[in-house]
Amino acid sequence: MRTVIFDLDGTLIDTSADLIAAANACFRHRGLGDVLDPVADAAIAFRGGRAMLTEGFSRSGAGGPAEVEEDYDKLLTAYGAAIAIYSTPYPGAWQAVEMLKNRGCAVGICTNKPEGLAKSLMDEMGTSHVLPVLVGADTLPVRKPDPEPLWEVVRRNGADRDRAVLVGDTETDVKAARAAGMPVILVSFGPEGPGIARLNPDAMLDHFDDLPDLVERLLP
């Protein structure tokens, strides 16, 4: 059985604006105002909460590593309280997943977002039933780029390790797939756009309509 494993943020769903809003809530609490821009800083959002806080404190000159750690839990709380205000799925994402399932593929999510937040996001969007297998950053003792979370998605589907592919949007996804010995597809519509091809994935995905046929080519 083929398994198609999806990253979440920047791959299935554009969550950047809600992530930036959570970081800006932390900056406002410190009297710094909205330091990050939801459009210009979208790529930073997909690098995680600490990356956003680090960038914001660096720009404002108002903090460093200590302030990042002080505010990290506050950021997660703010994000969890307003997790799907602006987030939207990329066009055709859920339809592609359903088509893969109809073709007999197992599917699942492997994300470096904490599991509870990832499940809340899927619940809020009404899509938990589309991808019920979900492995988050804290599901196991390790996270991507360690390959073990990818294998956990395969295991939970009762599928075969040698017939799995990862769909993602970052260097972390490429490193995880390479460590697992599985092919990786990178989306050209994520935070870095077509430039992500510099990471030499096994394939690029320009639109989710193309994914089912691409999976069959990579996993014959």
From TrEMBL:
Cytoplasm as a keyword of this entry, yes or no, is no
Q: Please tell me whether the keyword Zinc-finger is annotated for this protein.
A: no
Give the GO cellular component terms, alphabetically: cytosol
Q: Which reactions is this enzyme annotated as catalysing?
A: 2-phosphoglycolate + H2O = glycolate + phosphate
User: EC number(s) per UniProt?
Assistant: 3.1.3.18
Name of the featured protein: phosphoglycolate phosphatase
SUPFAM superfamilies per UniProt:
HAD-like
